[in-house]
Amino acid sequence: MSEKTTAGREQTGWRSELKVLLREPPLLISILVVFALFGLFIIYPFVKLLFIPSAEDWQLAITGKEFVEAFRNTLFSSLAATTTAIIFGFIYAYAINYTNMPCKRFFQVVALLPTMAPSVVTGLAFIMLFGRRGFITWNILHLKVDLYGAFGLWVVQTIAFFPLAYITISGVLKSISPNLELAAQNLGAKGWYLFRTVTLKLATPGLASAFLLVGINSLADFGNPMLVGGNYHVLATEAYTQVVGAWNLPMGATLSVFLVVPTILVFFVQRYYLEKHSYVTVTGKPVAGLIRVTAGPAATWAMFAFCLFLCSTIILILGVVCLFAFTEAFGYDFTFTMKHFIEGVMQSAVMKNSWVAAMSTASITTIFGIALAFLTIRKQFPGRVLMDFLAMLPVSLPGTFIGMALILAFNDGPLAMTGTLWIIILGMTLRQLPVGYRQAVAGLKQIEKSLEQASTNLGANSFTTFRKVILPMLKNSLSVSFVYSFMKSMNTLSTVIFLISPEWNLASINIMSLSDHGFLATASATAVGMVLTILITFGIVKLILRDQINIFDL
Predict the structure, then answer these.
(1) 487: which residues sit within 8 A by CB, 6+ positions away?
(2) 553, 544, 397, 512: which is closest to 45 by C-alpha?
(3) Phi/psi at 327 (nearest 5 deg)?
(4) Which alpha helices (H) appear in 99-119, and where do they start and end?
(5) pLDDT tens across 351-360, in order?
(6) Is 327 helix (H, G, I), strand (E, B) or coil?
(7) pLDDT tens for residues 174-218?
(8) 526 CB burial (10 A radius; 0-12, 13-18, 19+)
(9) Where are the alpha helices (DSSP H) in 176-248?
(10) I need a labelling partner for 7 at 20 to 30 A (CA). Which of 201, 260, 276, 286 fits?
C-alpha cells in the first residue's frame, strides 16, 4: 500500500512540474531549446567521435608500442606536474592568506600574469633561457646541455599551471571561517598540528578542485610537449601528429578518447569524495572581529622566500620574452627594435581574430551560463539534474577531445562549420561554459528567493523576472565570468588546435608555430601583444565597472 502511495506521489510531482511548464510557454520553450543545443553541440559530437575508430584502430591503440608509451608518458608527466603545481600553489595561497608577510599584493598580481598568456609561453621562455642555445646555458654558462624531454616538460608544466592551482586553492582558503581554527587553538592545537588537523582538512575541496583542473590541463597540454618534449611523446601530440602528419583521423580520434579516460576518472572520483564529506565552515554565526590564526615568524619568512623565488621565476620568464620581442637578436645583438612586434602583432590578423573569438565566447558563456543557472537553481522541471550534468561535463574533457569531436561532427552536412570562425567560437564556448555556469550558480544562491516570488505575485512571468530582477543583482558574477572567459579564450591552445584554418588562425596557435620553426623573436612579440591586449581589455572593464570587480583580488 505504501509503495502505491509513493508511486502516486512521484507521479503527482512530475505532473505538477509539467503543469507549471505548460502554464509558462516561454519557460518550456527555453528548456527545450537548451536541451536541443546540448544534444546538438555536446552529445552528438562526443558520441560521433566514439564511433569513428574501427575495431582495428582500438586494437592498434592498445597494443601499438608507440601509443602505449605515449599513454604512459602522459600519465606520468601529468601526475608529476600536477603534484608539484598543487604543492607550489598551496604554499603560495597559504602564504597569501595565512601570513603577515610583506609585498602580498605584489605576489598576488605577479602570480596571475602567466594566466594572461598561453601555457606554451613558459615552454618558449624555457627554450630561450635553457635550450641548446639558451641565453643562460649557452651565452652565460657556456654549457652544452639538453633539457628537452621528461625533466624539461615537468619543470615547464609545473610553472605553467601553478597559477591555476593557486587561484583555486586561494579561493577556498579565503572562505574558511576562523572560528574552527581559533577553537582548536584554544583547545591547545598549535603550529603544524593545527595546520594538519584543521586547516588542511578544510582546504580539501580546494585541493581536489585544483587537482582536477591542473590534471586536465596538463593531460591535454599540447604546446609545451611539442616545444620541450623532444622525443618524449604524449597523447596530445600523438593525436595531432596522426591527424595532421599521417592524415589518420580515426587513430587521432582513438587517442583523443584514451586521453579522456583519466580525466573522467579524476572528475568522478573528486565529486564522489567531496560528496561523502562535509567541509561547511560558513554557518551564519558571527565572525566579525575574529582574527585568523597566522603562521609564526619563521614560517612566514620561509614562505616569503618561496613566494619571492616563484615570482622571480615568473618575472624572468616574462622578461626574457619581452627582451626577445624588442631586440634585434637577444644574446647577440641587443639593439632595440619594434620590427618583431610590428610583424607579429600589427601586421598580422591573428590578434584581431583571437580578440573577436574571445569576446564572442565571453559574451555567449556569460549570458548562456546565467540562463542555465536560473533554470537549474530556480526552476523545477523533469531533466533538471541532467541539464546540470551536461553543463558541467566539458570541464572534465581535454581541449583536444572537444576540438576533435567538433571537427568530426561539423565537417560536412547542413551545419558544416570547418574552417570558419563559428566552429572556433563553439569550441571555446564549450570549454568555458562550466566556468560561467558555476559563477552564475554561486551568485544566484546568494539572492533571496522571496524577491522572485514577489515579482511573480505582481504578475511577471519567469522571463520578465529573470530580465528585470535577477540580472541587475548579478553584475559582479557576470563581470567576473566575462573577464575570465575572455582571458582563457584568448590564450587557449589545445581546444582550437584542430579548429583553426589559414583564414582564421589565432595568436596562441601562431606563437606555438613560430616557436616550433625557430622564429623566437616574432613568437615572443606575439605573446607580448596578447598580454597587452588582455590588460587593455581588463583596463576597460575596470573603468566601466570600477569597484564592482577586483580582477587581481584572489
Answers:
(1) 115, 116, 358, 534, 538
(2) 397
(3) -125, 160
(4) 104-112
(5) 999 999 999 9
(6) strand
(7) 777 676 677 777 666 677 777 777 777 878 777 887 888 888 888
(8) buried
(9) 178-186, 191-194, 200-202, 204-220, 223-228, 235-240
(10) 276
Closest CA to 262 of 401, 434, 84: 401
Q: Which DSSP state fits 347?
A: S
Write the CB contacts of 478 (distance below 8 Å, at least 6 apart in sequence): 366, 370, 440, 443, 471
Length of the chain: 554
Q: What distance in Å separates the CA atoms of residue 464 and residue 107, rounded to the nearest whole number?
A: 44
Q: What would the grid cell of residue 424 be?
A: 572556433
3-state secondary structure string across 36-55: HHHHHHHHHHHHHHHHCCCH
Q: In sequence order, which residues have a C-beta less than 8 Å from that of residue 391 and are 6 or more positions away?
A: 38, 372, 376, 433, 434, 437
**Beta strands in 263-417, from DSSP E residues, in sequence order:** 327-329, 333-336
> Which residues 6+ apart lie within 8 Å of 97 measured at CB?
170, 173, 174, 292
Q: Are 108 and 96 in contact (CB under 8 A)?
A: yes
Instruction: Please choose, from the candidates 231, 189, 205, the residue with its C-alpha nearest in 3D space to the C-alpha of residue 90.
Output: 205
Tell me 244's DSSP state.
Answer: I
Q: Collapse the DSSP code of 456 into the 3-class scheme (helix H, G, I; strand E, B; otherwise coil) and give the result.
A: helix
pTM as predicted:
0.82
